[in-house]
Design brief:
By secondary structure, the protein is α/β, with parallel strands linked by helices. It has seven helices and six strands. The chain has a single domain, classed as 3-Layer(aba) Sandwich (Rossmann fold). The chain has helices spanning 17-29, 54-65, 86-96, 108-113, 120-126, 157-165, 176-185, and strands at residues 3-10, 34-39, 71-73, 100-107, 128-132, 145-148. Helix 2 packs antiparallel against helix 7 (176-185) and helix 3 packs parallel to helix 5 (120-126). The chain is globular and about 45 Å long.
Length: 189
């Protein structure tokens, strides 16, 4: 029987409680064996934030998921230079792990954006998409997406960065160890 792995991609700049809630809910409700957090090197649809290094994002992610036996870090996109396209990532993962069935977890914002994804027609044949609800998005797409209902947590990494920049606390929005790391490193100030 194939191992069922959910991939949760993103910049994770920083990882927050919303990411962890999504991962835990999808793990259980979609019947997956594990969730791998997939930090991207350079997302094709966003500008890279040069103020926070890839290594700092990885450290924050490690701190966020430590202690969860079914959460891990997948660094395949950090091993490559250039834009991180999901098609290329899934192709490489499938070559490396032939006995694993991969699902790609996306938020409501990305469900609507799927028609613009790089090589989406081919990607749809390679990986199962699991979409989670996100406030203010319609979740409509011509592509096959399994919807998983998760608690509505209207939280984003950009909100956290902006809050820190204003000198306000983000305690309880990010895991404690991530909060301490942000403070210690002076990130987003």
């Amino acid at each position: 029987m194939k191992k069922k792995v959910g991939l949760l991609g993103g910049t994770f700049n920083p990882p927050h409680m919303g990411h962890l809630v999504i991962a835990e809910q999808v793990l259980e409700k979609a019947g997956l064996d594990e969730i791998r957090f997939l930090p991207n090197h350079v997302p094709p649809h966003k500008q890279a934030d040069e103020r926070v290094s890839v290594n700092q994002r990885v450290v924050m992610l490690q701190k966020a998921i430590k202690g969860h036996p079914r959460f891990s870090l997948e660094q395949i996109e950090l091993e490559r230079a250039g834009a991180s396209y999901t098609y290329d990532t899934i192709k490489l993962l499938m070559e490396r792990e032939e006995t694993t069935e991969f699902s790609f977890i996306i938020g409501g914002d990305m469900i609507e954006y799927l028609p613009k994804w790089h090589r989406i027609e081919e990607l749809q044949k390679m990986v199962k998409f699991i979409g989670v609800n996100r406030p203010t998005y319609a979740h409509e797409t011509p592509f096959d997406v399994q919807l998983v209902e998760v608690p509505n947590i209207d939280l984003s990494s950009s909100y956290i960065r902006d809050t820190v920049k204003k000198g306000q606390s983000v305690r309880y929005l990010v895991p404690d160890d991530v909060y301490r790391f942000i403070k210690k490193e002076g990130l987003y100030e």
